Structures are given as C-alpha cells and as structure tokens.
Amino acid sequence: MQMQIRFWGSATVMFDHFDAVLLARMQFAFTVSFHIIFPAFSIGLASYLAVLNGLYLRTKNEVYFELFNFWKTIFAVAFGMGVVSGIVMSYQFGTNWSVFSDKAGPVIGPLMGYEVLTAFFLEAGFLGVMLFGLQRVGPKLHFFATCMVAFGTLISATWILAVNSWMQTPAGFGMNDKGQFIPLDWWAVIFNPSFPYRLVHMVLAAYLTTALVVGAVGAWHLLRKTAPRRAGMMFSMAMGMVAVVAPIQIFAGDAHGLNTLEHQPAKVMAMEGHYDSHPDGAPLILFGIPNPAEKRIDYAIEVPKLSSLILKHDLNAPLAGLDTVPPELQPPVAVLFWSFRVMVGLGFAMLGLGLWSLWARYRGTLTSNAWLHRAALAMGPAGFIAVLSGWITTEVGRQPYTVYGHLLTAQSHSPIAAPAVATSLIAFIIVYFFVFGAGTFYILRLMARLPRDPTPEIGDAPLRSAGITPGPAQHPGPHMSGKGGSHAH
C-alpha cells in the first residue's frame, strides 16, 4: 500500500506546475482521442457491411457474403470499444466540467439523450440480428437489420455533431436568471450555422477512414497472395470509394472553412498563421515555424495573396489577423497551424492515392500493381490521423471558450484540485493503453486472418494427365477442400 501511494504521489509531481483546468482539458483530450477513432471507423464500416449484404442479395456472388462475414466481426469489436470509451468520456462532464454541465445542460442534455434513444438503441437492437440472426430471420430481414445498424451510426453522428456544433456556433438559446443556457428554438439549436458543414465533413471523413483501412487490408493480402479474389474485391471497392469521396471531401472542407471564417474568424487566423492583418491580400503560408513570442511565422514558405483567393475568392481581398483579437481571446497558434496542415496534407495524399488507383484500374493493373498496394498499405492509418488532426483543429480553435463567445473554459471546470485530476489522468493513460491497446491488437489480428479463396472441387478437373500408363489417383490435401475458406493465413 505504501509503495502504491508513493507511486501515485511521485507520478503526480510531474503535473505540479499545471493547473486543474489544463489537466482536465488534457484528460478530456486524451479520452476523446481514443474514442473518436472507433466511431470514425464503425460509421463507415457499418455502411460498407450494408453495401456488401445488399450486393450479395442482388448478385448471389459468394465473395460479397464472405467479405461481409469477415468484416462484421471486426465491426463488432470496434463498436464495443467505441461504446466503452464513449461512456467513460461522458462521465467527465460531471467530474471535471460540472459548471459547464450545469450551465449548458438544458441545451446539450436533451440532444445527448436523443442520441441514446434514437441511435444507440437502434444500433444495439439490430446489432445482434446482424451478427447472429441470419438463419433465424432470413436474408431480407437480416439485410434490413444491417441497414438499421448503418443508419443508427449515422443518426448517432448527427446528434453528437449537433451538440458539438452548437458549442462552436451557438444559436436558438437564451439565458435564465441562474446564468444557464436555455433553448428557445430547438430547430435553431440543432441546425446551428456550422452543423450542416461539420456533419458532411465528419461523415465523409468516416467513409474515407474506413475505405483506407479496407484498402490497406486488401493490399496486405494482395501482396502476400493470401486470397487474391477476396482481397482484390475489397481493394477495388475501397479504392473506388477513395477516388470518389476524397475530392468531395476537399470541396466540403473548403465550404466548412468559409463557414468557420464567418463565425469563428480567430480560429481561421490561427490556422493560417496570420498574426498580422493583410489589407491588400493575404499570403497562403505553406510551411513555417510559429513564433508566439514574436508574433510571426519564422522561415515561412508562402504563396502571395493565395489565402485571400481561397477564403474570399479575390486576390486583393483584405484579411484580418490576430492583431485584431485581444491576446486573452486568441487560440494557440502553433497547435492549430500544424494540426490543420497535417489534415490538409493527408487529404491531398488521399486524393493522390485515389487518382493513382483510377489510372491502375484504367490500365487493368489495379490488383497487380505492387507499388500501388504498398502505398495503400502505408495510407491505412491516414484516415485516423486526419480525423484526430481535424478534431484538434476544431476543438483547440474554439479556445478559450467552451461555448464560443459566451462561456470561457476557465469558467467551466469543476472545483476540483489539480492532484486529483492528475491522478485520474495517469490512471486513464495506463488503463487505456492496456485495454484499448489489446483491443486494437486483436482487431489487427482479425484483419490478418483473411481465409484463402476456395479452390475448385477436385472432381471438376482430370485426376491424371493423359498417357499410356495411368497414374495413381490423387486425393485432395488439406488445402484442396472444395468448401474452402476454412484455413486462415
């Protein structure tokens, strides 16, 4: 017991120079970073399962059904990990952010309740049918259950993004005599100015994330020649999705950026690295090192006036800088500057991969181009990194507010001591890395176990070659089973 106390005591010494607010923000950032990767994957994967199930019903091609069975197990594990990590994250509203919960609860509480009632119950109710009910309910009702799971994941994303978007661009509310936000117009609360843009951007990000994972798994097995037919099918579908969705996502991201410039200009100033205003056209800073002390970007590589062209569609349009924002209301530039560039850079890398796959498809080398497969395998985690970078850009850019323009983060935390928050943060780090690390390792093991393609029945081919002397009859070995697909490699 004394050793345990000394361990936790020495561990919390590291955080002595942090205050409770910063530690609470670090804890929420850590837990939500683990959580967000699972819904980002399961939203896209649920829709992919619905597509595979529908294609099987329509074409009776067994490959679609075999891929459905392969990915549904992975979906079940990812879904479970997403639920557990989300529940843990939600408790922090009461432990670390009780003042925020009290003030914003009348608005965000019902929305999160609707997410449970309309989405989580729908997903959980039909998930069992999708996983285990095919022989009991029949193929058509089973397909309906799969579609309901996919629909439930989209509805879940809708409600959560409505909550978060309201915190970014609050609308449709008033204040009561206790200083609480109260809803005056639910339509305005839900469909706040940033909600449509952020919903489209997030759903497309989820589809890209899933497509890149599916493509990476297909590429892995094509390189290993494990199951060329199955791997080729999933690789073709994934690369087709990337080729279609990546350019749409770039346009959606541009529209979202223009909306952000209108409602959260300080966030865009920090993303662009514009410490100073530019009255006759702002440059686009491609790379550089933010220098907060001197209020400039060191070693900047920039394109003159291109930022004004992108954001205002006019080369000479003036753009305000952070010099127009009080220092205490400025978001941290360095974090936003780099997270935004990681997200955008990966977005264009996805576009390049999609265009490369279209060229390979045109030439008939989609399933034989080893370099394309290596590139797709390397891009497998890119969707998760882009989602995390986008989330960091969105949430850090909202600082120093929890409800933008109305409630400061410093006014939102619970009256709790820094050592208590530090202790729970350390506990979260240790438990999360063990639990979710093991879960992620198990998912990767499942992805590596794609069954081999079925081989033809031995009776479909001659048992011996033509000749004068008949050879001995050949018997099928362990890898020649006509039923196939039972050996994992």
TrEMBL record:
The chain crosses the membrane at residues 36-57, 69-91, 111-134, 141-162, 199-223, 235-252, 335-359, 371-392, 416-444. It is found in: Cell inner membrane; Cell membrane. The keyword Nucleus does not apply. Residues 459-489 are annotated as: Disordered. GO terms for cellular component: cytochrome complex; plasma membrane. The keyword Transcription does not apply. GO terms for biological process: aerobic electron transport chain. It is a multi-pass membrane protein. One of its GO terms (molecular function) is electron transfer activity. InterPro entries: Cyt-d_ubiquinol_oxidase_su_1 (IPR002585). Keywords: Cell membrane, Electron transport, Heme, Iron, Membrane, Metal-binding, Transmembrane, Transmembrane helix, Transport. PANTHER family: CYTOCHROME BD MENAQUINOL OXIDASE SUBUNIT I-RELATED, CYTOCHROME D UBIQUINOL OXIDASE. Belongs to the cytochrome ubiquinol oxidase subunit 1 family. This is Cytochrome D ubiquinol oxidase subunit I. It comes from Allorhizobium taibaishanense.
